[in-house]
Amino acid sequence: MLIERKALETFLPALAGLGQPELCEHAAALGFPVDGQEAVDGTVVLDIDVTANRGDVMSHQGFARDLGAKLGAALAPFALPAIEEGPARVEVLLEAEACPLYATALLTLGAGATPEPARTFLTHMGAPAKGLPAVDASNELLHLYGHPTHAFDADKLRGAIRIRYARAGEKLVTLDGVERTLSPEDLLIADEAGPIALAGVMGGDPTKVTETTRRVLLESAYFDPRTVRLMARRHNLHSDASHRFGRGADPRMPRVARDLLVARLQAWAGATLEGAWAAGSEPAPAAPIAVANDLLERIAGEPIPPGEASEALRALGCGVEASAAALLVTPPSWRHDLAIPEDIVEEVLRLRGYARIASTLPPLDAPPRTALTAYGFRSRLATRLAHAGFHQTVTYGFVSPESEAGFALNAEGRTLANPLGREYSVLRGALLPSLREVAGANQRRGAKEIRLFEIATVFEASPDGPVESMRLAFVWGGVRGGEDFLTPARPIQPADLAGVAKDLGFPPEAIEVRALEGGLYGVEAPLEVLAWPSERCIPAFAPFSRHPVVERDLSLLVPMDLAYRSLREAVVKALPGTGVLRRADCVDVFRHKSLPEGRQAWLLRFAFQADRTLTGEEVDGWMEAALAAARSLGAALRT
Amino acid sequence: MDASDLKLLPPDIAEAAATFEAQLDACGTLDALMRLKGTFTGREHSLAARLMEALKAAPKEQKRELGALANQLKNAWEEGIKGRQEALEAVKRDHAAAASRVDPDLPPPMPLRGALHPLQRLQDRLVGIFAALGFHIEEGPEIETEAHNFDGLNIPGDHPARGSSDTFYLEQHPDLLLRTHTSPVQVRVLRRLAPELEARGGIRFVAPGRVYRKDDIDPTHSPMFHQVEGMLVGKGIGMQHLKGTLEYAMRALFGPATAIRLRPSYFPFVEPGAELDVSCPLCGGKGCRVCKGSGWVELLGAGLIHPNVLHYAGIDPEVWSGFAFGLGVERTAMMVSQTPDLRLFFENDQRFIRQMGGLD
Ligand SMILES: [Zn+2]
Known about the structure:
Chain A is α+β, with helices and mostly antiparallel strands. Helix content of chain A is about 30%, strand content about 25%. In chain A, strands 18, 21, 22, 23, 24 and 25 form a 6-stranded mixed sheet that branches. Chain B folds into 2 domains: about 5-100; about 120-355, Bira Bifunctional Protein, Domain 2 (BirA Bifunctional Protein, domain 2), CATH 3.30.930.10. Chain B has helices spanning about 5, 10-25, 30-40, 45-55, 60-100, 120-130, 145-150, 185-195, 195-200, 240-255, 305-310, 330-335, 345, 350-355; strands at about 135, 145, 175-180, 205-210, 225-235, 260-265, 270-280, 295-305, 320-330. In chain B, the strands form 2 sheets. Chain B has a 7-stranded mixed sheet, with helices on both faces. In chain B, β6 and β7 (about 270-280) form a beta hairpin. The structure holds zinc ion. Zinc ion binds near residues 280, 282, 283 and 290 of chain B. Zinc ion (ZN) binds near residues 283 and 288 of chain B.
């Protein structure tokens, strides 16, 4: 919100001696940090940040009130023009509780224009004068006092003014030129011909004040904050008025603002007051709030003398009655945000300054929990993959339905109602499509080798809504090696990924390497496939066999179409169990034109160990059995 | 031996003997030396063999003198050749050694090296800092109900954050949304632990995670980002405990000289509410571009838990009180690293991850 320092000083003369940095410090300490400041026309315009609960600070008067309380300085005396209310010149009928008070006046305009100081002020507020005194005066009042008012062209109104809810389908063209279709929750100002304004949000175009306007009917009312907020949201129409009424205007202000507006039009435009009147009455003031001294002490962290608290609250406009154990606090009419005792305590601390709050660590309530959490498990896994050469990625949780083709099902159940675009419309059912995209981007930027992983949530459609689970995915592609004098370059192969998966502890049946495009391969699996590390930090000791390991190789010529898995299974079946067979692996594959056509050579390596020393004869016997098993599948001994 | 002695020899042997030293010097390789050896001292047809033959055939009176001369020559030749052979072998050994030696300054093969994402590292760091204060980790789902994301946090029914222009909703499940903050974890944890609160003596946890808001992607906005939420419930908890905890955490994060300040602010789920500034980690408070000359940077929102939040979770606010805070991981990462564009964190360029991330 913009504040002109010169105007602010008219409300709080004590500011005159205060330096600009000190003013900013005070503002921030009160909860209104200064986002920017600009020196213009011999004064400074500040942009202050006002939180959503403080509609009352959205004016020079409101900001000056808080600053005055902080500085212990009084606001300048308020000179209210003496205007007598008389009989209604136009009947005003309040037909909705959301408008308890509607003050108005009828004036005939004379000659005159918006004076130069007001024009300059409005320019500083980012809302240059329109050259229509009735409009400019209303705007000036809004920025100075925070109470929104409106002027209608009285000659365009027909009959009584009603404040009522809209009938479904009624239409109104608002001042911004947009035709709005109204709903029964919209609170209206209407005349006999229909709607003339969206209450507290924006006036209607047909009844607006123009250069030809001769008579004006003023509106200065109080509207229910929630009703205004909902209207502004429903019509996506956020105006200066809706911001202030929506956060809660001061219910004592309607008559005051009307009188100020009348006085301005008399002074600026030679207006003649035809009559001033009001319908309804102020809403009942809020009930007093009892604030126990204990609560004040608990929140502040130290006892605060009741006198100090009372003084701070009175400075902020509260009524305070002190008893032995509590303060009974009546918030001022403009403070809609003060509802519970904690709100009142915050006011006391705010005026004292949060800087005075002590700094203490809370007492430990229970022994810390040290068990490994799912988060910790994922962190460890990520660290392990990073050490294995992979780069951790963070990609969006939503993707385009097209990118998931072949990776996940039932995108409909995972679709957002209001996505940023089709590209981001489906909560992803798999991680590999995201990694594939990141890999592509890296390749386009010249990366020769791609090593990426992500550990993140995926979603699966269900009748009750998407079910979430954590997955790990990694991709590897391009060329590895060739970057030093010892390691030759070679393309990444699926086996490279299978090795990583195996090393991470994937069970063999969970390892599925998918070929993605561009020499890229990927593995994706639910985190549950990985075993949770044991609670004990060092497992129970199991003795090693002290007998020697016997290692034997078997070189086989095998048909090209023989699957390694079936060969290994058959061979292992022919050998003694895991108590003795410690290893049975293929350690080399050889393909060459020197081999018989349709054959390749596999070198199998076996290791045997038992609780006794094995004899050469028994190992020879096993190797014979292994060879026989291999032969039964069409393999032959390579000599 | 002088030249007159050589006159006793056959002329070709005398000539060879005279040039032996020169021929020996000319042998650059062991092969050439072996040929020379054959010529001078070989078992057959060599000069030494012929010298022996000449000695046998010599007249008796010359035998003694010639015999001494022949021995002298033979010894000289053998020793010359042996010495030369040792020298040449030493050279050969040196060459072999040089050939097998690797220049230690050649770039060695390196183990593969990846990196954790910088957001993960910062998040882990924060979680670790609070773990030291006894805050355990809680997590919640990314898809939430309005009840957990808004109602339980005292966010009014007409709050703009609930609108479809701010929050992502699911098409087939209009009651479900993508959480807009990690605060719904507060609601879940408080409700879950409420029955055992007295037995536990209190609650303290941090909740890291992904959150979603309907913002267009630009240098300072992202529809998905990370937060770390923290909460503590106990008896007699006040603003001083919030301040003490955050002061400890910020000093652990930015260094022991870090100063903090709390300013009044407003969040519906806390009362009193506060904004936390830390002394600028880049200039130490002297004023720079990052802190816009103020010496302070705004880091997180916090406050004492609103009684309505405790009440909603079934906890009596007359007995229990506590504080909560929430910090944006991306915003903090950008501030400390001065990364100019938020999108870099989601582009996942391997170079960026290696540079900004790391392994621990
Ligand atoms: Zn700085």
